[in-house]
Amino acid sequence: MSDDTKNKTLISPEDKVPFLKKLAYAAGGPVDILGIWVIVSIAYQVFNMELKLPPTYVAIILMSLRLWDGVLDPIMGWISDNARTKWGRRRPFIFIGAVMAGLLYPLIWWFPPDSSHLQIMFWVIGFGIIFYTFFTVWSIPYQSLLMEMTPDYNERTRVAAIRGYFQTVAGFVNGWIWWLSMLPIFFIVKDGVEVASPLNGMRYISIGIGILIIILGIIPAIFVDERYYHTDVVQNQKKINLIKGFKETFSNKPFIILCFLTIFFLLGQAIFDG
Predict the structure, then answer these.
(1) pTM of the model
(2) How many helices (H) and strands (E) does the chain have?
(3) Same domain (yes/no): 125, 255
């Protein structure tokens, strides 16, 4: 008997996630790439190379957005864990977060053309923070939903693997964003000559990204169930104290080690992408 056959027999029928639900959950995977990594990968090309913002300004923009995201993530997790609605504690946030994030994303790029460097920096940080707020409203419950789809480790891994395929496609698109932003359709007239403008390209591409964030982001909210939400364990669970939750989390040594490994991994990835 092969290992695959043995693993299949270990999964209870009620713990299997239907393939369509796996696809529904995985559809949200590209939202993370499109919402976060596109701006990271093209920030210097647009703000520094085209608009001539000092590299320090660009760094402040990216640092401010990531710091805000880091502060907000655990707070959103706490809000979602303690939420009790008739639609669940994950799905309402996933739906609302996707819609609002998709609507707000283009605003990051549509600052007035006559803005100064300082005005551009504050505009991008301001609308970026608002976008990141609603993106976090979507992303944290979305990530949590995976853990609640099935108690079976192997089945969760399969769901995550399918999501990974979707994210890989989105990552491929992200790698071509700069090229797409310089297509002739986005050229602008400067001094009587048509020239490429990544900024103008991103303004229109961002509208498409916003639409994709909404469409792909709400699919898990509509088609994926919260398996344990209506159980007595969840319904009778006492609300978690935020400060107490922080203390318990940071007293977990394996978790701290994993955090440091994640930091080094993301740092290396960000340096390479930049």
Answers:
(1) 0.89
(2) 13, 2
(3) no
